[in-house]
Write a structure and sequence with these properties.
This protein is mostly helical. It is built from 15 helices and no strands.
Length: about 300
Amino acid sequence: MKSAKYLYLMLIPAFVWVIAICYAPMFGLYMAFINYQPGGDFWTQFFTSKFVGLDWFQYFYNSGDFFRLMRNTLLSSTMTILISFPAPIIIALALNEVKNRFVKKTVQSVAYLPYFVSWVIAANIFITLLSSDGMVNGILKSLGLIDQSILFFQEKNYFWSIVASANTWKSMGYNSIIYLAAIAGINPEQYEASTVDGANKWKQMLHITLPSLKPTAIILLILAVANVMNTGFDQYYLMQNESVMATADVIDTYTYRYGLSQGMFSYAAAVGLFKSIISILLLTTINRVFKRALF
């Protein structure tokens, strides 16, 4: 430590940030086990509130919302993974075949741009495109596929597909950077040798590029599946309405609604803690399954 003292000094800001942002707030998890009522001095209310143990967890399980929220969270996240996971791989493979440097850089910039757009703007883009007089309905009518406009945000069966498409559109360009970096690391001699053996572009992609991307893809798939409970808050909150609430309400929006809107802080803390526990269990289980399957 003495010989690398300056490196440790550089770590101090990051260390302080982790303690202040990631660990210190865990003290508030105690709220999930008490009957906290806002009002008066926070610390007095916090430490003098009645300890109720696991009552809030039991209340959540018996509330009638438990299975609906778990279904919406898990199935919506699963649909997002099924659509968004292969999208950046396809983009990376396609861009790798583009030889014109200007075209390649332009497509990359356009594909990356949605990642830096806030969900407020992205949600309004989708709401506008999918409105009754929006572009999507206009195209479907011009092709003769429909006679009347489809009210996408009034039909609960469409919501998961809309959110999955929005998540994919927003992240696929940025995530493709990882696969492009992996492709750049492939030894060019492999392609040259395959060309000598008579392999065309399609066979090179199947037998060289895709196998080289396998380790990267597996790691990203593990991370994606392990975060299946973390659906995200912004996109669901901004796109949901009363007509689609049966499928649009997930644990994150439920926690916000009961915690901040209705002031049931202890109940919301219990629901959030439950989600975190399930996420940890999923991560541990998935990690073990993939290790056994691969190694």
